[in-house]
Specification:
Elements lengths: L5 E5 L10 H9 L3 E3 L10 H6 L9 H13 L6 E5 L1 H11 L5 E5 L12 H11 L8 E2 L3 H7 L6 H11 L3 E2 L1 H7 L21 E6 L7 H10 L7 E6 L12 H14 L7
Parallel strand pairs: 1-2, 1-3, 3-4, 4-7, 7-8
Antiparallel strand pairs: 5-6
Length: 269
């Protein structure tokens, strides 16, 4: 019997890695070997993360990529990567470096070369950008800010419940790095989009997402036009940035599983 394929879930800003638990349970049932390691400096729990924001502060994109690359190097086989928001960018970078069998990037933060920056995205990230010193700090969202950035497609009650359950402070550095990406030839937000030998990539987009609007994800898709590797797009018109953690998460997870099966990467159950 072959060992189950590892799946690594990569969280984005403001969500703790344990927010992937329903996905982990589902993917294990489907015959994969899932895990959701946190970013470097992330405490083990939401509570500890809120109590120790300084442990999270200061980590940039390259730092996070190398953290997950080191985890991957410890595996016997290349994993499938599933990332949300900045986790989606990290997954794309690792895939471009041939460190993954495949990747699913859900509402992924914009990579170098993507030009659209809609006003809703600026508003969603304003809590970080309003103070340049936040580049070296960890920044928390209020429940109201979370509702605009994540929970705008939900009831206020569900958004508030998700905020209380999963949110943690987030390092400001990745946002500043992404914002300057198109002015920096060596930007850490650069992805090897021309790699034709990499594994398949699925870009997922929530049609009501304020933080990573669909226009950003579609512009990301165009960045891969010079690669012969499989690059596909899936749209969820009624969903916002909370689509991996809210009550509709299963639709998104099932779509990811169906796509992986279509790429010959089904679990071993």
């Amino acid at each position: 019997m072959t060992n189950p394929t590892p799946v690594i879930f990569i969280h984005g800003l403001w969500l703790h890695s344990t927010s992937w638990q329903p996905w982990i349970d589902l993917f294990r049932e489907e015959g994969y070997a899932p895990s959701a390691p946190g970013w470097p400096g992330d405490p083990d729990t939401v509570e500890d993360s809120r109590l120790n924001p300084e442990s999270i502060a200061g980590h940039g994109i390259d730092d996070v990529v190398e953290h997950y690359a080191e985890i991957i190097r410890g595996l016997d086989t290349l994993p499938i990567l599933i990332g949300h928001s900045f986790g989606g960018m990290i997954a794309q970078k690792l895939l471009g470096q041939d460190l993954a069998a495949a990747a699913v990037a859900v509402d992924a933060a914009q990579i170098k070369g993507v030009l659209p920056l809609p006003l809703s995205a600026l508003r969603a990230t304003l809590p970080v950008f309003r103070n340049p010193a936040n580049k070296h700090r960890a920044v928390s969202l209020t429940a109201e800010q979370f509702r605009f950035a994540f929970g705008n497609a939900l009831s206020e009650q569900e958004s508030d419940e998700l905020f209380e359950r999963w949110t943690i402070p987030a390092p400001g550095k990745p946002l500043f790095e992404a914002a300057a990406a198109n002015f920096n030839p060596h930007s850490p937000a650069k992805v090897d989009t021309a790699n034709s030998g990499r594994g398949p990539l699925l870009l997922m987009s929530g049609g009501k997402d304020h933080t990573v609007p669909e226009s950003v994800t579609r512009a990301t898709l165009k960045q891969y036009r010079h690669s012969d590797a499989v690059t596909e797009f899936a749209d969820f018109p009624g969903k916002g940035h909370s689509l991996t953690i809210d009550s509709g998460w299963r639709e998104v997870a099932d779509a990811a599983l169906a796509w992986l099966r279509g790429q010959g990467l089904a679990g071993s159950r």
